[in-house]
Structure prediction request, 143 residues.
Amino acid sequence: MNGSSPVRALGAYGRGIDTLPPLERVVLLYDAALRFLEEAKRAAEAGEIERRFRASERVREIVRTLDSALDRERGGEIAARLARLYGYVEHRLTALNIRNDPAIAEELSELLRTLREAWARIARPAAAAPSRAAAPTGVRLSA
Prediction:
């Protein structure tokens, strides 16, 4: 690898992510969750239990990251509703793993896609005006 290690490459990637505005990081988290949900759905359809479980657990990790980024004090009702929604997603991920039902993965994909699009709409104007690129009240994504 021309003198570079995979660990160093990963570190460089991490620093790149840290330079993104918080709203763009949220959108990227949703993108990753949607990719892993698609993988979980395909694995469930194919009866590949271990692959489905690994993919759904990656989604769970992402949802927990989103939940932990909520500022429940400043975020008020919006943060509370997002926290409940993330709890629901985790509950349904457990159901996906118990039932091996691809329809559950599809349900969650639709839900997270809706949220992703909302965050992307918020992020677009923020990206155009860097002074407004901070996360909205109720969300904190520190490096």
The radius of gyration is 17 Å. Confidence is low (pLDDT under 50) at residues 4-13. The chain has five helices and no strands.
